[in-house]
Amino acid sequence: MALRHIVARHRSLFAIKPRLYPSSFTTGIASPPLKKKKNKKTARLSFSVSASSMAYPPKKVLVPVANGTEPLEAVVTIDVLRRAGAEVTVASVEKQLRVDACHGVKIVADALVSDCVVAAFDLISLPGGMPGASSLRDCKILENLVKKQAADGRLYAAICASPAVALGSWGLLKGLKATCYPSFMEQLSSLATAVESRVQVDGKAVTSRGPGTTMEYAVILVEQLFGKEKAEEVARPLVMRSNHGDEYHILELNPMDWTFDQGPQPQILVPIANGSEEMEAVIIIDVLRRSKANVVVASVEDKVEIEASRKVKLVADMLFDEASKLSYDLIVLPGGLGGAQAFAKCEKLVHLLKKQKESNRPYGAICASPALVLEPHGLLKGKKATAFPAMCNKLSDASKIENRVVVDGNLITSRGPGTSMEFALAIVEKFFGRRKALELAKALVFTHP
């Protein structure tokens, strides 16, 4: 058996053990939290406050979206904050709820931003993407909301282009340390003290660099809202990297060339369903479309709009019945418990996957899907694979499960939300070569630019 193991350099910026995510990984928290004085009275109250924490109103978060918003940045932030228990409102600054985000991803918001003017939020977080960031900047309702947020001393945040394009232009970063997407740093430098941190916290302002830093950014937002203990609790099942910014690595067994003969670019099918893990689906779609692959997003439900595991509403390109009539160079399944169960019950999808395996064409899955879809239908027979840690006991061969991405010939599998970027980049590498994959990783700010 041939073995290729590409190992990354290890510089720990996000230590998993013994502490899952120390604040130091942001490389800059300008304003440390105030230490509260302890006394006997607060000590006596500490248990009752903790025990009755559910009596407190939930933390409310606003995430505005627009046509041209970077979908990965929006969806990962929403997903992670909802995992923490935040009540997140996704608000469209357009005239309709559905927005056409970058890379052909369609998101249906919960409300229009005009519906949110009377609400009070604990956090407002702006995704980036162009022209999405410009649309957010030009929305007077949103500008007034964020300015009031800052004036009231509540959290406000932005990522990628939005720190410079929106927050900076509104004067909300003056005198603060902030970061943004590399190509906007010059613009930011005239509006704030520009720093190259992957995530930067200064007072009530939180900023971050781009798609590849979004998960780190979202976990820091959880810390700012709920505290370090909750952030660690949320970060643990995400299966995040311990070496943010370094090159990704994959384990490859039985190497084979992945070719595409369905057109000038790889033809890739990404099924989605109610209960699919939205982070995984959107990261895969986003990254593969950035590589210029032709990605078909197909709903296995009876309509194109699905509600993913954390209630993000996504719109597929077509129904699966239509998509199943085409041929693909790769079929790749996102995870999510409900979504994986729907895939396993979809006879046409299982049939298509079996045909893919029989013809020695690539197929893959992440998170729950290797265990709940591929394994029970014999699609892992004779293959090494990995899956979400809690699902690995369902794999008949668990010898390589500790690897974040495993490629065995024409099969690729991965562990969970925090490995989705590596998973997608590994697919790019298999079709286009490692050089292109690393260039894309730098453009995403997943690795150091």
UniProtKB/TrEMBL annotation:
Top-level taxon in the UniProt lineage: Eukaryota
Residue ranges constituting the DJ-1/PfpI domain according to the UniProt record: 59-224, 267-429
SUPFAM superfamilies xrefs:
Class I glutamine amidotransferase-like
For biological process, the GO terms are: glyoxal metabolic process
CDD domains in alphabetical order = GATase1_DJ-1
Per the record, what is one GO cellular component?
A: cytoplasm
Q: Pfam families per the record?
A: DJ-1_PfpI
Query: What InterPro entries does the database record attribute to this sequence?
Result: Class_I_gatase-like (IPR029062), DJ-1 (IPR006287), DJ-1/PfpI (IPR002818), Prot/Nucl_acid_deglycase (IPR050325)
Q: Which NCBIfam families match?
A: not_thiJ (TIGR01383)
Would you tell me the protein name for this molecule?
Protein DJ-1 homolog A-like
Source species: Rhodamnia argentea
Q: What is the taxonomic lineage of the source species?
A: Eukaryota, Viridiplantae, Streptophyta, Embryophyta, Tracheophyta
* Primary gene name: LOC115755074
